[in-house]
Amino acid sequence: MYWRRIAELPSWMRAVMLGQLVSAAGALAWLYLTLYLVQDRGMSAQQAGFAAAAYGVGLVGGNLGGGWIGDRFGLRTAAVASQLTWAITCAAMPLAPNGWLAALGALAGLCGGATRPNLSALVAISLPAERRREGIALSRTASNAGFMIGPPLGGLVAAYDFSLVFVFDAVTSLVLAFVIWRWAPPARRVRQVVRLRGSVDRSLLILLAMIVVLDTACRQIYVTMPLLLRDAGSPPVAYGVLIAVNSVLIVCLEAPLAIRLRSHQALRVIAAGSALVGVGLAVLGIWPALMGAVVAIVVITAGEMLYKPTATAHVADLAPEGMVGRYSSLYAAASVSGMFLAPALGGVAYEHVPRLLFPIAGGLAVAAGVVLALTRQAAARDALPSASTAQRSSGS
């Protein structure tokens, strides 16, 4: 059944998924960035955190503006341009002096960040609403299949020469740019501006705010967990294998899970996923060792599989016709906000209060899940009077 669902996707989407797999296999530069800055560039954990945060700031800007550009000039055009400029800035990273790294990282994030919302929007407009969660999960499956290959190899390459990691990242990004240009269809351009109103405004804003909190907490596995494992005596390749475990679980389970839960209320699924992320982070705080990290990654991955495809599709469902790119950008910007918040906050916390970092991050993720659960209940209560009024009107 799983492979049949993939075969039912549009042919261009299957081609782009293959390009995503190749690109993800080489997407190593920023995965190992904090370790690279500390180990090869001689920075402290705090300095590396702030330098990586500059990339995150640019990434948020690229994600936020990318969908708007895609709606205006074409989703495919915007995605190709962002991949090309990303490859250039990524290749320049090992050549830049330390004083330029933050600025170059911000530029790289700005250039490359637009790809994700435009690809998400292309998927959303190509599939019926009832298959959006599934389609987005399958797209993530392709990327995570690449992550199964890339991080362990990246750990071995990093042990030899960290500069090669950046070069490999740039080359595989060019492959994805070509695939998108060659096979992805152009999307209709939209120039009108539609404003959110009423309860949709409140639920959307609450969801985006909680995604910011959740992403900041969850990204500690990419920012400070490699430092924790290093201090526990584990080699870089152990961290790469852990990230590969995350990808294996997503590849095997996320799309089937999305299909099984597609009829469940979106905010309930997102809230459950947020709670699981919090539990996993708490495990890492209680058991700061390699085996503790293994357990944490499994639990956190379960949470990711619940909340990420569901939240992406839910925001696309809220979008007016022709505005999916802009709405996807709103979600994409919120969902990568941790790229600058997590390194800045996590780097400082790990240097000064390392024992509190993961318990606090876990608590924030659980709190975000509680807020979303309460939001869903409030929306359900608000819908009851409207339904009663409609029944009375039809009866009269």
UniProtKB/TrEMBL annotation:
Subcellular location field: Cell membrane
GO cellular component: plasma membrane
Domain Major facilitator superfamily (MFS) profile: 12-380
Major place of residence: membrane
Transmembrane segments: 12-38, 50-69, 162-184, 204-225, 237-259, 328-350, 356-374
Domain of life: Bacteria
SUPFAM superfamilies reported for this sequence: MFS general substrate transporter
InterPro entries noted in UniProt: MFS (IPR011701), MFS_dom (IPR020846), MFS_trans_sf (IPR036259), MFS_Transporters (IPR050171)
Protein name, entry field: MFS transporter
Organism: Kribbella albertanoniae
